[in-house]
Design brief:
The complex is a heterodimer of chains A (306) and B (364). Chain A has 306 residues and is mainly α. Chain A has a single domain (3-293), classed as ABC transporter involved in vitamin B12 uptake, BtuC (Orthogonal Bundle), CATH 1.10.3470. Chain A has 14 helices and two strands, in the order H-H-H-H-E-H-E-H-H-H-H-H-H-H-H-H. Chain A has helices at residues 3-30, 38-56, 59-83, 88-106, 132-136, 141-159, 161-171, 173-178, 183-209, 221-231, 236-258, 265-269, 271-284, 287-293, and strands at residues 120-122, 138-140. Chain A has a two-stranded antiparallel sheet with strand order 1-2. The radius of gyration of chain A is 19 Å and the shape is globular. Chain B is mostly helical and 364 residues long. Helix content of chain B is 69%, strand content 3%. Chain B has helices at residues 13-37, 42-51, 57-82, 90-101, 103-107, 116-142, 146-166, 201-218, 220-230, 232-237, 242-269, 280-290, 295-319, 325-340, 342-345, 358-363; strands at residues 2-7, 346-351. Chain B has a two-stranded antiparallel sheet with strand order 1-2. The two termini of chain B are 20 Å apart. The chains are: A mainly alpha (306), B mainly alpha (364). At the A-B interface, helix 3, helix 4, helix 10, helix 12 and helix 13 of A face strand 1, helix 7, helix 12 and helix 14 of B.
């Protein structure tokens, strides 16, 4: 395998958690809910996936634990913002703070343990294609899931009746309510889907990216995923493009550090965050474009009238 | 079971005051359960977490030291949040304030004069304000989401500080430790009273809280902040500019966070290190909400959250557990504060039996 392929492989590994967390948040935001707790759900997923894997010896149980913990954790957010109509921004922050705290506490005794890496699933024949084979068909389950989820979300949002309903809830909850759509239930499900995806993204971190547990191991990826949704202007396939772009940026800084070019490592480490800001500026300076794409009811609370 | 909300005709005065206390109570209950799950006696754990730090003079001083940055930052954030500007990067502004204020004692360490300290504080405020100016400019003029930009800049500030103390600003006589030279006596914020370590940062915090409280309550600016926060459209009709408000609130909160940063470094740490804050900038968000975005409430809330830091340190010693419960407590507290705020605007009715609602309507 050439060096180019090796680099691409690491880019894919770095991009997968971003894609996963962002595609989940995209669905949540399409339903009109802004959940800023992605970082918290992701780190919970990472911790629970690692712990479950260590306990059972099976990384597949770990994946399930990651998904379940993310979804359950997002229910807290859902209860506060949807049932108790609490402020979504503040509640999302609370979810992140709590997630970082709880994951640090439950994962404490697992720090430093070497984990079990999620095995590759090799597709026969396809994996022998030169260049593409090793990149696309000799990957782990979570990578395949990430691509399938993006395709599935695209189909769901734009080709299915339920997806149309979800988008209508996100654009005008009052109209959707008047049409008999259960706004609150739709949003609960969307929030939980976002949580499950963030949890899966976390599982990727502690089972594939670096198979171990370290406190705060999500290191801001949840926030980058939030920026990715804006970057993708709420369209699923653009998440993949954006995710791989960000993956490439974060990997390029690692390589630059390894080859010791004359830039201090801290500046290189800051690159993904700076790139996020630059991309946000490029995307959002056109006010009209942003207005067209943003779900119109994003961040607005809904109390059914009777 | 189903839960339904009914909007109150007026804001409930009773619950405006009660809700933070209910939230505190619930946090204590859940905290007790958490300690029980950790295999500790919940009552004695809660005692050493929340009461013991209050029983000694030196620990009261520590409380004031930890409360000072929390209150300073949260008071600034309250202006932001009331005007609907979501600055969540106070941690970064805190760090940049600390760096800017440290230019004098680290780079120009030979200059010793009574002017050093006031200039340091001024530079600290400027550093914080300038760093907050980035998301302010991006939001006001390029329409970029301030939540994400201000948060991303926190990582940038942390890395910048890390680079400084390991590189250009490393103490030449410090055996290669990643830290700057210790500040000269003229650059150290003096203690407030003779009985202990608490420095003037706490004084600044109280002063800032009173000034902002006065501004919010008695000045046109305060009215402008509230109106623009509740309805940008209404503010526009009144001739208020939401763009100017973005600048005003972000620069103000940045300056206060910067002041908190330099006061902490000059008063408590007395040098720069790779990590100078245990997440004050994020905890201050909790403080702002627990204080119901009211500067005077924030003073009390700041003391409460400072207590969680002290309590966390105390149980490490007395119960042999880690400092991790601190973050859990803080997160729980914010959750309960936010959910109890619902009581202020809504009546909550529990529908134990789901009777598809028709009977309930008939009774009403």
């Amino acid at each position: 395998m050439g060096i180019f392929e090796a680099i691409l492989l690491t880019v894919i590994t770095a991009a997968t958690p971003l894609v996963l967390a962002a595609i989940g948040e995209l669905v949540t935001e399409r339903s009109g809910v802004l959940n800023l707790g992605v970082e918290g759900m992701m780190v919970m997923g990472a911790a629970c996936a690692f712990i479950a894997t260590q306990q059972t010896g099976s990384p597949y149980v770990g994946i399930l634990a990651g998904i379940a913990s993310g979804a359950l954790f997002s229910l807290l957010f859902g209860f506060l913002t949807l049932t108790l109509v609490a402020n979504q921004v503040a509640t999302g922050l609370a979810l992140t703070i709590l997630g970082l705290g709880v994951s640090g506490m439950i994962g404490e005794s697992y720090v430093g343990q070497s984990g079990i890496k999620l095995p590759q699933i090799v597709f026969p024949i396809l994996s022998d294609i030169p260049f593409l084979g090793p990149l696309l068909f000799r990957q782990d389950l979570i990578f395949y899931l990430s691509i399938a989820l993006v395709a599935g979300v695209h189909w769901f949002l734009f080709r299915s009746r339920a997806g149309l309903k979800l988008r209508s809830v996100g654009d005008s909850h009052s109209s959707a309510h008047a049409l008999g759509i259960n706004v609150i239930r739709t949003r609960y499900l969307a929030v939980m889907f976002g949580g499950a995806c963030a949890g899966l993204a976390g599982a990727q971190l502690s089972l594939v990216y670096t198979p171990q547990w370290a406190e705060n191991m999500s290191a801001g990826r949840g926030w980058i995923a939030l920026a990715l949704v804006v970057f993708a202007s709420w369209r699923p396939w653009r998440i993949v493009a954006g995710g791989y772009l960000f993956g490439a940026v974060s990997i390029s800084q690692l390589y630059a550090q390894a080859f010791g070019i004359g830039i201090p490592s801290q500046f290189l480490s800051a690159l993904p965050y700076l790139a996020t800001i630059v991309v946000l500026i490029l995307i959002s300076h056109n006010r009209r474009m942003t207005l067209i794409n943003t779900p119109a009811a994003l961040g607005k609370a809904f109390v059914p009238d009777r | 079971m189903r839960i339904e909300l009914e909007r109150r005709p007026d804001v409930s005065k009773l619950f405006s005051i009660l809700s933070p206390f209910i939230a505190l109570g619930l946090t204590l209950v859940f905290g007790g359960i958490m300690f029980m799950l950790l295999g500790k006696d919940p009552l004695s754990a809660l005692y050493s977490f929340f009461i013991e730090p209050l029983t000694e003079v030196w620990s009261l001083h520590e409380l004031a030291i930890k409360a000072a940055p929390l209150i300073l930052i949260a008071v600034g954030l309250s202006v932001c949040y009331r005007s609907n500007n979501w600055n969540i990067g106070a941690e970064g502004q805190f760090i940049m304030g600390a760096i800017a204020g440290s230019i004098l004692p680290v780079v120009f360490y030979e200059w010793q004069s009574p002017l050093v300290l006031p200039l340091m504080m001024l530079l600290g405020m400027m550093g914080g304000a300038l760093f907050a100016a980035i998301p302010a400019f991006l939001k006001a003029h390029l329409n970029t989401n301030e939540i994400l930009t201000s948060l991303m800049l926190v990582y940038v500030a942390q890395l910048f500080l890390d680079w400084l103390v390991r590189g250009a600003w490393r103490n030449p006589g410090g055996m290669n430790f990643p830290e700057t030279r210790t500040f000269d006596a003229t650059a150290i914020l003096p203690e407030m009273i003779a009985s202990g370590r608490a420095h003037w940062g706490f004084g600044f915090a109280i002063l800032a809280a009173i000034l902002i409280w006065f501004m919010m309550r008695y000045t046109l600016k305060g009215f402008e902040i509230t109106v623009l926060g509740q309805s940008e459209r209404a503010g526009r009709f009144a001739g208020f500019s939401s763009r100017k408000m973005i600048w005003f609130s972000m620069l103000l909160s940045g300056a206060l966070a910067g002041l908190a940063g330099i006061a902490e470094v000059s008063g408590a740490i007395q040098q720069l290190r790779p990590v100078i804050s245990p997440g004050y900038g994020f905890t201050a968000i909790i403080v702002a909400f627990l204080g119901r975005l009211n500067p005077l409430g924030i003073v009390v809330a700041g003391l409460v959250l400072a207590l969680t830091y002290l309590g966390g340190e105390a149980v490490q010693v007395s119960l042999q557990i880690s400092d991790k419960p601190i973050r859990v407590f803080q997160g729980l507290l914010l959750f309960f504060v936010l959910s109890c705020d619902t009581l202020i605007h809504y009546k909550i009715r529990m529908m134990w039996f789901d009777l598809t609602d028709t009977t309930a309507d008939g009774v009403r």
